Amino acid sequence: MSMPGEAKLLPWHRDIWSRLQAARGAGRLPHALLLAGAGGLGKRQFADAFAHSLFCASPDESGAPCGHCRGCHLFQVGNHPDFICIEPEEAGKAIKIDVIRGLVDKGALTTQAGGYRVIVIEPADAMNTAAANSLLKTLEEPVPWTLMILVTSRPGRLPATIRSRCQRVTFPIPPRHQAMEWLGGQIGQGDPQLLLALASGAPLQARALAQAEILKERALMADEFYAAFKGEQDPVAIAGRWEKLDLPRVLNWMAGWLIDMLRLKSGAQPPVLYNPDQRPRLQSMAQGLDFKVLHGMLDRVYDANRTLGSQLNTLMLLESLLLAWANSKTASGVRENT
Fold first, then answer.
1. Which fold has domain 211-332?
2. Which pLDDT band, with edges at 50, 70 and 90, does 6 fall under?
3. Cα dihedral angle (8, 215, 264, 235), rounded to 10 degrees?
4. Mean pLDDT, the chain, as a whole number?
5. Per CATH, which fold does 5-172 belong to?
6. Alpha helices per DSSP H over 97-246
7. What is the pLDDT of residue 1?
8. What is the rounded distance in angstroms from the CA atom of residue 123 to the CA atom of residue 255?
């Protein structure tokens, strides 16, 4: 299915697209959708594509917009009066109540062009408590021909009252063969199989990781993670360097290494790893640790991930994690096997 501009549909979106278009055709489209699933699956791209379809005067039988009518033109140039996207002012910051309140106070829920009004909130979990409460009032009293689309990779961070008033649309990880085929046509270099493993199967995330500098950064981090374990580098110094990196990615790498070590330690059969290129080193570290310590370290990383977007000191957080990791052999009471 070909779509113009930024509204192009991705291959693994088609089943979800068909279900929602069928609901639209039957007059059963809800007033609010919650698009949920892992990062890197193109949920926002899907939201744009669906909005584009709603604005088109002559979509085809599948719902794909024509690309030629006035509604399509306005959407493609980013000037459709009935399309609103609400995002944080800066990445990692909160969506504040004033922004959500403005939807109602300024009549932003009323259609301007006579069709649907579409409001995309992404990431929806970035709304602070006051903003979420303000949105809840709007969801409880929906406006005809207005569709709210909430996009999030962390639906659990949204209040249950918000989730219960939206129709949830879950985006699964696409089949491996489909993701591999798409990714192979997107990257000029790199191993699609490794990239998909590193991205936990999320194709857009895998494409982003294909950038040489990101893979180089990961390799250096892996070296430092191993050096901290071996006592060959100061964990505080490592934390100082990691503080300058993308924190969500840092925590994701760490979680992946720890999960792989648990898999290597527990599986009789060779396990599928997130980091297959690091298998020998991960195996070596796993042999020197017990399950309790590895699970404890993974819990620490997950706890740190849950604090993303808060005001916690990043350097102190990383120092705490790396100091705990450097002391993990002592905590295990297991003799290192190298």
1. Zinc Finger, Delta Prime; domain 3 (1.20.272)
2. very low
3. -130
4. 88
5. Rossmann fold (3.40.50)
6. 97-105, 129-140, 160-163, 176-184, 192-198, 203-209, 212-230, 235-242
7. 41
8. 22
Q: Which uninterrupted H or E stretch holds 83?
A: strand 83-86
- Pair 83, 51: CB distance under 8 Å: yes
Query: Residue with structure tokens 């709603």?
Result: 54
Lowest model confidence (mean pLDDT) among 99-103, 105-109, 292-296, 333-337: 333-337
pLDDT for 43-65, tens place per residue? Answer: 999 999 999 999 999 999 999 99
Q: What b/e readout covers 65-77, taking b as 16+ CB neighbours within 10 angstroms?
A: bebeeebbebbbe
Bridge pairing between strands 83-86 and 117-121? parallel
Residue pair 154/123 in contact (Cβ under 8 Å)? The answer is yes
Tell which phi-psi region holds residue 234, choosing left (phi > 0), alpha (psi between -120 and 50) or beta: beta
Q: What is the pTM for the complete model shown?
A: 0.78
Q: Which residues contact 290 (CB under 8 A, 6 or more apart)?
A: 332, 333, 334
Instruction: Choose between 305 and 108: higher pLDDT.
Output: 305
**What is the DSSP track for 88-131?**
-SSTTPPBPHHHHHHHHHTTTTS-SSSS-EEEEETTGGGB-HHH
Token representation of residue 260: 């792989």
Percent helix, strand and coil across the chain, each rounded to 5? Answer: 55, 10, 35
Check: CB of residue 220 under 8 Å from CB of residue 255: no
* CB of 285 closer than 8 Å to CB of 238: no
Q: Could you give the residue range(s) of every CATH 1.20.272.10 domain in the chain?
A: 211-332
Q: Where in the chain is the domain with CATH 3.40.50.300?
A: 5-172
